[in-house]
Amino acid sequence: MPDVASNLRFGVILIKEFDEFNVENISSLMDNFSVYGCTPDNLIIKAVPTVHDVVIATQFMAEYTDVDGVVIFAPKNRVMGTLSVMNGIVQLQMQWNMVVVIGGTECADHIIDMVALQNNMEMEAPQMQTPHSTIS
d(Cα 10, Cα 69) in Å, to the nearest integer? Predict the structure, then answer.
């Protein structure tokens, strides 16, 4: 299990309106990432004011960084209960083919599993074959 994520980079979006949650849980999230070999240098941590700002922040992560996935670090029910935010996140996942997970300290496990699944499926995908041309 160690070093599974040593070559992976992740974005972590903190939501300032959940500061108490952040303070209580962020060190555990970092510890969980380190168990898999993900160093602090491979984590891009940004804070946004409110839950409604996570969609644009996730877009920024996708567009302006080379992260393999994004963690929206927040109480899961508070983000997932906001339909407009969830709709935006799903659209970004599809547009950028990027894993986005929402929640607390378990997010390190979840995002590493999902990025590994994505990478494995990509490597196992049949190669595009060029059709044989027939010349008459």
Answer: 5
CA distance 87 to 65: 22
Q: Which amino acid is at 63?
A: E
- β-sheet bridge partners, residue 71: 12, 101
Q: Rounding to the nearest 10 degrees, give the CA dihedral for residues 111, 112, 114, 118.
A: 130
Tell me the pLDDT of the chain averaged across its residues. Answer: 91
pLDDT at res. 126: 85
62 token code pair: 């996708």
Longest dimension (CA), the chain: 73
Q: Helix crossing, 19-35 with 107-124: angle to 10°?
A: 50
Amino acid at 84: S
Average pLDDT over residues 51-69: 96
Structure tokens that stand for 7 in this block: 């070559």
Give the separation between CA 58 and CA 72, rounded to whole angstroms. 8
pLDDT of residue 1: 57
